[in-house]
Amino acid sequence: MNKLLDSLPELQPGWVWLTGAGPGAAGLLTLLAVRGLSQADVIVYDALVDQAVLDLARPGAVLEYAGKRGGKPSAKQPDISLRLIQLAREGKRVLRLKGGDPFVFGRGGEEALSLVEAGIPFRIVPGVSAGIGGLAYAGIPVTHRDCNSAVTFITGHDASGVVPDGIDWMSLGKGSPVIVLYMALKHIGQIAERLQQAGRRPDEPVAVVSKATTSEQRVLETTLAACSAAVEASGIEPPAIVVVGEVVRLRAALDWIGALDGRILTPDPLGHRNKTQVG
């Protein structure tokens, strides 16, 4: 393993690596992310980076918090970008560590463009997005050939913090069999109403996965019509991923974490015989 890590690119002085930390669990880091953690002089991290990930930083590395959480005092995006530029110009090896993947609702593109404008060399290190990896830890595949051949990833709020008006909700509701929503918990009632107005069934399965892949992971299974009340009653908290679609039913068979705790899995949750025979 050390030989493999040593063969990877080095984080050079004056460079910034825009790096995905994955959905939470340190084991889901990429090798290149681990390489960056072991070499960075300064790690500028956001609110969704787990402490177990930060614990992998090299001794002596400076950890700078730059998290943004809705409704709480947060660093402003231009200030974060300027800080990355300042650190790089000081000759620091800078790791910008972002939850999930930096280019999936992570504003990594904005930071990268700022670096380009300032003439700062950078590398993009992709990470496991919560909309895929987090759902997998809940036993929910984003695609399954008996359910869907398409999936749509959307954000639950725009830059002003409200439900995005730029989304064609009618077309989305009619055209996407599976919808994965980031940062949607606050507006889940409005979003559910819009999807039902677009023709989605009130009893369509919905799952909310909170703090995915961590020891605090919680999964709430509900329906489109009931999800707003269910979220409020459960006390489930962000960060959370919401998925709408028939793939949620597969959790009855694929909840591998639940099985470790004794859950009996259902072989045929979709109600028809599996086309693949074993043995």
TrEMBL record:
InterPro entries: 4pyrrol_Mease, 4pyrrol_Methylase_sf, 4pyrrole_Mease_sub1, 4pyrrole_Mease_sub2, CobA/CysG_C, Siro_Cobalamin_biosynth, Uropor_MeTrfase_CS
Gene3D superfamilies for this protein: Cobalt-precorrin-4 Transmethylase, Domain 1, Methyltransferase, Cobalt-precorrin-4 Transmethylase, Domain 2
Pathway, per record: Porphyrin-containing compound metabolism; siroheme biosynthesis; precorrin-2 from uroporphyrinogen III: step 1/1
SUPFAM superfamilies: Tetrapyrrole methylase (SSF53790)
Keyword DNA-binding: no
Keywords: Membrane, Methyltransferase, Porphyrin biosynthesis, S-adenosyl-L-methionine, Transferase, Transmembrane, Transmembrane helix
Domain Tetrapyrrole methylase, first and last residues per copy: 17-225
Name of the featured protein: uroporphyrinogen-III C-methyltransferase
Native source species: Dongia soli
